[in-house]
Amino acid sequence: MNNIILKKKHVFFLTKTYKTPLWVYNAEIIRQQILKLKKFQIVRFAQKSCSNIHILKIIRKCGAKIDAVSIGEIERALISGFKTYSNDIVFTSDIFEKKSLKKVIKYKIPVNLGSLHMIKQLGEKSPKHPVWIRINPKFGHGHHIKTNTGGENSKHGIWNSIKALKLLKKYNLNLIGLHMHIGSGVDYLHLKKVSQAMIKEAINLNQKINFISAGGGLTIPYHEKEQEVNLNNYYKIWNKAKKKISNFLQCPITLEIEPGRFITAQSGILISKICSIKKNQKKYFVILDSGFNDLLRPVLYGSYHKITVIPGPKHIFHKKYNIDAIISGPLCESGDLFTVTKTGSLITRKFQNIACGDYLIIHDTGAYGASMSSNYNSRPLIPEILYDHKKFKLIRRRQTIQEMLSLENN
Ligand SMILES: *Cc1c(COP(=O)(O)O)cnc(C)c1O
Known about the structure:
EC number: 4.1.1.20
CATH architecture of the largest domain: Alpha-Beta Barrel
Helix content: 25-40%
GO biological process, one term: lysine biosynthetic process via diaminopimelate
CATH superfamily of the largest domain: Alanine racemase
Strand content: 15-25%
Keywords: Amino-acid biosynthesis, Decarboxylase, Lyase, Lysine biosynthesis, Pyridoxal phosphate
Catalytic activity: meso-2,6-diaminopimelate + H(+) = L-lysine + CO2
Shape: elongated
Bound molecules: pyridoxal-5'-phosphate
Radius of gyration: 23 Å
CATH topology of the largest domain: TIM Barrel
Pfam families: Orn_Arg_deC_N (PF02784)
CATH class of the largest domain: Alpha Beta
Number of domains: 2
């Protein structure tokens, strides 16, 4: 997929210009992914998956709307050109912090309410505010326990929607939509279950609303063995639910989806350098200059990412290896790994002819990559580069150590 930017000369150009490690995104893939979703009336990008404002601008120009889960994400959306006093931004959360509450009221940003407490907080200050309720469907699903967002083990959403409705009425809030998000990773059986739960809730509440949202969770084939989501199937299930609800409530309903990873995951790669290849007893370790401070998914979820190698320019001087190796980062922490199973055990990858100085490309990292990075081990945030119209553009420069320390200067 990322062939265009994977040519050796491009990798050499990028690593020479910006050094490693670095993120690269291909804008065209983002556009293609959004186009695949055009049947859905509203595509709302879950920006937590990839929040660089240059990416958000591309997404806005494709006609998508946006989800924000913090005041920082509201600011990002505004800077990227999404509008206030409109349906462009929806604020989704299980809590209000003082500042975010103030902001959504000031700009009349619709709120997707995740708790009864939020209803009270918003209702007291902003009657008639347009709101959604995020309903916990009482069961969940996710590619990992940590991404399961439904059921009693999930903190998300409102358990008792009738109670919520009573409170909404008490505070005179304007209910415009119902939302459910059970987690990430689509499975059709679960999808059917969610859409049926949505129908049941809509009928039970019996309120004229404008929108229903199927949430996010559309997966992408991280592994070669995995298949693309059948979007037609997904659409059919939800369109049917929409029609049923619309018929029952006797009002038109707009169907939204709220994907994150589906839109950006495949557009991004992480380019790092092999700094060391070492053998501890019988195990080989390939050690990169990028760790879980940059890409957290393998450590957090045991996620699989495809990994390829581009031979470095000084190959001839280094010893070459044909090995099965564990891939690790530079952090002072033994859990700093890229090859982990879902249950946390170590696995290896096969390498042919690799050497120190080679570039390692970690694929499909455009979602929950840069946006989840940290400064752990006091390593500065790494640059993000956008490939668009056959050109590379720096869309976030490397953080300097000075900048990192500046917050502590007093
Ligand atoms: C994270 C999240 C999404 C996006 O999930 P993906 O798996 O990236 O599609 C959508 N909606 C809500 C409420 C979320 O929390």
